[in-house]
Amino acid sequence: ERASDGQVNIIYWQAPSILNPFLTGGTKDIEAASLVLEPLARYDETGALVPWLAAEVPTLANGGFSEDKTQLTWKIQEGIVWSDGTPFTSADVKFTYEYCTDPQGGCAQLAKFENVASVETPDDLTVVVTFDSPVSNPYQPFVGAQSPILQQAQFADCTGANAPSCTDQNFYPIGTGPFTVAEFKPNDVITFEANENFRDPAKPAFATVNFKGGGDATAAGRAVMETGEFDYAWNLQLAPDVIASMEQGGMGTPVAGFGTGVERVMLNWTNPDPALGPDERAVIGPHPFLQEPAVFKAMSMAIDRPLLSEVGYGDAGKPTCSWVAGPEIYAIEVEGCFEQDIAGANALLDEAGFVDSDGDGIREANGVPMSLVFQTSTNAVRQDFQALLKQWWSEIGIETELRNIDASVFFGGDPGSPDTFQKFYADIEMYQNTFDGTDPQSYFGNGLCDKIPSPATQWQGENVSRFCMEEYDALHAQLTQIDDPEERVRISQELNRLAFENGMMIPLVHRGRISAASNTLGGVVLNVWDSELWNVADWYRID
Amino acid sequence: MLTFIARRLLLSIPTLLFISFAVFMLLQLAPGDPMAQVPLTVPDAVKEKMREALGLGEPPLVQYWKWLVQVFWIEPKVLIDYLTASSTLFSWLPDTALYQGELRVISWQTRSPVMDIVVQRMPQTLWVVGLAYVVGVLIALPIGVYSAYRQYSVFDQAGTFVTMIGFSIPPFFTGPLLIVIFSVGLGWFPSIYDTTHEVTDWDSFVVQLQQMIMPVMVLALQTTAQISRYMRAAMLDNLGADYVRTARAKGLSEAVVVNIHVLRNSMIPVVTVIALGVPAIFGGAIITENVFKVNGIGQLLITALFANDLPMVMTLTFIFAVLIVLFNLIADVLYGVLDPRIRYD
Amino acid sequence: MTEPVPASPKAIEALRDEGPLAPPRSQAADVWAQFRKHKGAMMGAAVLIFITLAVLLGPYIWTLDPQRLDIRNKDLRPIYTALWDGTANVSWGHPFGTDNLGRDQLAQMIAGGRASLAVGWAAMVLSLLIGTGVGVLAGYFRRLDGPLMRITDLFLSLPILPLLLVAVTLFRQPLRAAFGPEGGMFILIVTIVGITSWMPTARIVRGDILALKEREFILAARSIGTTSGKIIRRHLLPNVLSPIMVSATLGLATAIITESALSFLGVGFPSDFPTWGKMLADAVPRMSEFPERVVLPGTAISLTVLSVNYLGDGLRDALDPRLRGR
Amino acid sequence: MLDTETPDPIVRIDNLRVEFQTKSGRVAGVKDVSFAIAPGETVCIVGESGSGKSVSSLSLMRLIEFSGGDIAGGRILFDRKTGGALDLAGADQDLMRQIRGNEIGMIFQEPMTALNPVFTIERQLTEGLRVHRGLSRGAARARALELLREVRIPEPVRRLQQYPHELSGGMRQRVVIAMALACKPRLLIADEPTTALDVTIQAEILALIDRLKRETGTAVMFITHDMAVVAQMADRVVVMFRGEKVEEGPVARIFDAPEHPYTQALLAAVPKLGEMAGTDAPAPMKLVGRDDQDTDPIPGTTTPLLRVEGLTTRFPVQGGFFRRIVANVHAVEDLSFTINRGQTLSLVGESGCGKSTAGRSVLRLVEPLSGTVDLDGTDIIGLNDRDLRRARVHMQMIFQDPFASLNPQMQLADQVAEPLWNYGGMGLSKDEIGDKVANLFDRVELPRSFMQRYPHELSGGQRQRIAIARALALNPKLIVADEAVSALDVSVQAQVLNLMLELQAELGLSFLFISHDMAVVERVSHHVGVMYLGRIVEIGPRRAVFEDPRHPYTQALMKAVPIADPARRKSERDLNFKPIPSPIHPVGYEPVANVYEEVGPGHRVLVSESGY
Ligand SMILES: Nc1ncnc2c1ncn2[C@@H]1O[C@H](COP(=O)(O)OP(=O)(O)OP(=O)(O)O)[C@@H](O)[C@H]1O
Ligand SMILES: Nc1ncnc2c1ncn2[C@@H]1O[C@H](COP(=O)(O)OP(=O)(O)OP(=O)(O)O)[C@@H](O)[C@H]1O
Ligand SMILES: [Mg+2]
Ligand SMILES: [Mg+2]
Ligand code: NI
């Protein structure tokens, strides 16, 4: 029954600062907003697409997706109303498209609407999305937590340049979701109330949501599992032994799910030598020695992936040698990849002529010592990884200097900061990222030559390692043309292999996400393909 | 006295301008771009527009001037409007409408007026950090007095020992330690501060007390350590003074001699030390706030910093500077009030 | 009553001043004698010397590399836990135990102490130099008082974090190039802690100088032709030593703790470079299973601060000839 | 001899011994002291600094415990109003609290610090009354007012609301006396109540205590080191020396026929006003036990060394919103005098009349507003900083407070050598400087073993000799001695004075001697200038000024000086003092120029407005 279970307390150790997902890139903001704003369809915990506000997912099979792959027709469920009681119509969907694509607006999710030529509304419940060219994956706009639907009535005056200054709208969006915003304190706490007008009269079970932000993962985990103050803690990036000991608290349990995230070491294909000056660093290639196959192969061989996985993620991690390790079908198996082979690595390097010529324990490549600056974000597990990798590489005569940067700076993408992962002012760096849904095509696009970040693109661009290979580009182009699932898998695996064997990066661990839920909280289904709070309407209290 | 205050206030204006200018220029030096949060896909032209909307791209001096106007002209107008419209104290005044929708100081991070957020954060900071200061002082004073009165006694030695330990243990250790003991082990207090909690009756007040007690104690430990040292030194200075002997010769009891005659004199330097410590309250206690999730001013500053939210950082820093200058003045005035020998003209 | 009248009046004897009774000794011996009487100070000195020697000589005696990971021997408990817990996982090879990656805790304590003490002392000395300098100049030269005190206000209102972030981004590269990653960060941290913590010292010293300046012996020094510089050096500085000492002891603690807070916030030394503060911060999540990991560095920090505090107390007494006589 | 003891003394101290716990073991502050005080009697305790006077009195109040001492032996029998004698030495502190302030009142030495600076006079006066008498606030206030009237404070009603710092030293001391008298104690202990005060105020306070004693019959224990005050006040005298009583007797007997050599020496060292009558030049004092002494008069020369003309010094008083100068303290106003080589000019006057400022202005340690200072042909006022520093070689200063004028952190030899270092050693090598310093120590009769010591290890007299040695180091022509002996015990004072006179005779030094003590001035000066409110009201040869004072202020001053002779006691009626007007005048105020009338050779008297 609606609103019968009192309050649910959710803690995110990063605090949301805005509730309009079109104006922010932060997961915390998007997931907080997902309690209120909903898309037409979203991914479920298996990565499968499920209709949400739409009546069904349009496909080629049911005719919702045109044969020429340029038109997608959504049918909206009947009887959906906004939380203010007004009906939800296709006009709102069209408005959302216009809102985000307004050139003055600075929409953060513009990529979702990249190929969209137009959005038409033949009637109140029908939305037709037309693409400017055939697309193999049309489920980008209005799908997933990153592109939900805004209410036209509320945001009509907030388009274009007005978007950022509409504080009220951005803080208190009206949505169709199970909850409405009662109070928003930026960077601190949000109070939600059950939506009176939610389409399922029995949901949500909770009357209010207390969404707290800020702090650190340890405290969040402790608050759920040890003290029981909170019911749900998001994304606990903690060492497995720490999580295990928290579980001893008996108030809650960790929930894990495997998504697409692979913790990997990116190798810099350009020369990050500080002497080159800011505009030339990370632009001019090649790296003095990192592109030597012997070098990156030896580095990979020196790694004990199962150990890393165990130390860093426990049950929530699996060693991997794939760049895209999930969904599993796309992953590749590499012979001997999980075995550490220091001797072999040393032999490989010796053979390739990288020897320690001056006896300081560090090999030289063309006269320069093989010394690497290794950066990553500040996070206990990553620092442990760094230490382990440093040690292993030192055993094969490669010296590493560690550096860690605050996550908000490292992932902040600030073109002015020298410390972003995109700028890559280091030899190697470690992080993971994920993609939405289960189709890896656009993610594989991150290895294309034209996605290289550079000053010209304000340092934006996803090909962070500056890996550039004609063969790879060609193969990826092929992938975009092919529909046959099996063929897609084959090409994907091939792309994976190319990336691994040519030293784009060194995959380490396919890591799952761990969150924690209170033992008294029912209905939690961890979804790594969409917002973790995707089914919050189904949550209830176990007595 | 009044002219003294007025003159000092007048003098503090150039000081504040100087400070704000220096801080502004310093922040300009910092690399960073508020467009950081804007995703990669936004075209350059759009970004340029957004940048202009935020007042970037102009020479620093112009930006500084704009900021000054916003802080000293537009924000006060908003404040007056608010006071005359909805505050309990001044709402009898006719509603003013000074604020005509000019651009206020906008946070780049949340796209909302900085002042609104600051006002929102104030209560937490005041409740916790402020109360911690008060508690710390209240504990420190008796310790200082008694340590001095029984100099080199066991109490004195133990006091020194404990306060120095309190001083040397960082809050990021004491905080979690208390949490492990009292929240996890005993389950007495919550480990996470609820900033939405409102005190309406006795029970909610008790809840408020429970959630404040640990952060307050962690912070108070530091204050206690310092203030009790000052108090002890001041008491020692005064206990040997001639007037103490006079007071005793009058046949006054020890309690009166120490707690009235000596204490009153010893408070003079200590009160100024206390007053000078007040601005730090508003600066927040970043680490303690972080540990207990008291999202106060400290947390605001650090998130703003990491998110490159210059208007927020600048405004907070400036508020801090204002408080420092103000409390410097208050300390001086208090000195004069407490010590009749000081004359201001 | 009858008073016996001495036969020959030796009145001049009666009028002669009594000189100091004890034979004169060298100043150093005097200071030492007084210092030795201060039990706390002696203890403080002993502890401090022990800690200093331990971190300086430790690496030669305990030669394990603090950064060496020995994953098979991770999470060992300190040897003493075997006293009450027979099943504890201990090893004589790691008397203080190991951390979650198998780094030897004893070696880390030694290496961490080197860094923490170095940062503490260097930052303290820097802040004392600036603080005393500004305080003396502001107190002594009327004209400098206003400007210098405004600058003090400015620095008081500078938040340390923005400053650090700015400094890190501006200077890290050149410093790293010149002094290596750890050396560069060391210089940065020391400088930042130094220049953001001298203000209280400056205020106190200024106040004391203002008071001292009115004392007659300063006027006397002027009347015998002592120049301002020499007045400051010979007459003022020795007399403000005691407040400076107090600032110094508090400053050392603040510096060590600020460094650890910076590590805690992730803007300090490289992550594999141990300092006491960082060890403490890193161990906090596992505090209940492995209490020794917080207790050991925590105790080290407290002991250092305490011993410096007591040492300062004793030195202050010993250096002040007025107290020394008693 | 046998004392004629009153049968029932109010307090009787028997074999008192007081010890202090110090770091170097237990030391005795008072070794063995016995005496008694009868009702209505004034017993003066005299002795030098450190002889145990204060310790005895504090023991009587049992306040000694609070200064770290304890009564190690002896009895203090106090005759309580009710119920006979009580041994205070063994009484507990609760009982003592009832006695203190109630049956025994005490006046302390330092009026400046004896009052709590942050409470009003009313509060401090009524406190004791309310504790002991249980008076209501109003009644206590009425009584306080009455007390203030009794001690003759002007405007008593206003005083009640004032704070101690708003009162002058004399008024404060009266408040302290009022406080001690509040509960009509039967014994009043006065511990050097006038030492810190001007002669004029001292005379008033002494008269006041004397009158109160006569009117109320209170017994008074009067502690002082000033024999002149003893002569004025005492019925009986107890002489103390290094913690022991050495002599006791009626005042006339002590002065006429001192028995103990210490008493004899003490009395010989006291300069008595009028002693030098009939002589022109000063001469060293004859001290008991010193046979080798040269007491020839020192004539000096008549060639001028220092010529001061129209010297004016004002201190600005800032105020108002912009801290502009709103008024000036006219500290020194149009001062003119001349000092001859080898001679001494003394400036006398009450506290605040500008003596120190005058001395410092001459040396330009404070910047004078106008006037000329000509030292041996050098125009001091016109010099720039560098030349001024050079010129300082020829003029040195000795300060009043031997405790404050030496750097506590510096060894004595270094302090004496410092002037030499400052001038590059004056052409001496390092060893020669060492020799010179050692010679200076000999010169001022300090053992060379003191060279490595610190100031706090020396007595006041020894320190003042260090200050003299420091002033002599550069062989100056002129020494300004600002109250150089005021802080010293009489015997030490005599030695220091003699030393100064000897030095003058030998080295031909000139002194500008600043003092408020008329007897000392009479002893050392060739010429005397009497200052009032920044002006010299009378100046001339010492003999002329002392034997024939012309200005009314000089005459009043002379009258106030107590004379160390019990036969020449002054009565209260002789005293007639007006309060000194403020030297602060608004900006723009131009005082009239000084006009003098020559009444004798070199003897000039101010005839224009003086403010008196
Ligand atoms: N608190 C103390 N601790 C140690 N010794 C003390 C203390 N107070 C006084 N004395 C010693 O006791 C002796 C007597 O001191 P007391 O103060 O009675 O002298 P006094 O005659 O009053 O001198 P003055 O004329 O300077 O007041 C001195 O030798 C002094 O050093
Ligand atoms: N630095 C100063 N600033 C302002 N006023 C001063 C200063 N020094 C002295 N005065 C004032 O000048 C006047 C003369 O002071 P001065 O010290 O010369 O008197 P004095 O005769 O030496 O008194 P005492 O006998 O107390 O030493 C006093 O009213 C004093 O308050
Ligand atoms: Mg005394
Ligand atoms: Mg004077
Ligand atoms: Ni006899």
Short description:
By secondary structure, chain C is mainly alpha-helical. Chain C contains 13 helices and no strands.
Topology readout:
The complex is a heterotetramer of chains A (543), B (345), C (326) and D (612).
Chain B: H1 2-29, H2 44-53, H3 60-86, H4 114-149, H5 154-168, H6 171-185, H7 202-239, H8 242-249, H9 254-283, H10 286-292, H11 297-306, H12 310-338
Chain C: H1 11-15, H2 27-37, H3 39-61, H4 105-140, H5 142-157, H6 160-195, H7 199-213, H8 216-223, H9 228-236, H10 241-264, H11 276-283, H12 291-319, H13 321-325
Chain D: E1 11-22, E2 25-37, E3 42-46, H1 53-61, E4 69-79, E5 85-87, H2 93-99, E6 104-107, H3 121-133, H4 137-150, H5 156-160, H6 169-181, E7 187-191, H7 199-216, E8 219-224, H8 227-233, E9 236-241, E10 244-250, H9 251-256, H10 261-269, E11 304-319, E12 324-340, E13 344-348, H11 355-362, E14 370-375, E15 378-379, H12 385-391, E16 395-398, H13 412-422, H14 430-443, H15 460-472, E17 478-482, H16 490-507, E18 510-515, H17 518-524, E19 527-532, E20 535-541, H18 542-547, H19 552-560, E21 584-586, E22 596-600, E23 603-606
Parallel strand pairs in D: 3-8, 3-9, 6-7, 7-8, 13-18, 13-19, 16-17, 17-18
Antiparallel strand pairs in D: 1-2, 1-4, 4-5, 9-10, 11-12, 11-14, 12-21, 14-15, 19-20, 20-23, 22-23
Bound molecules: adenosine-5'-triphosphate (ATP) (2 copies), magnesium ion (2 copies) and nickel (II) ion.
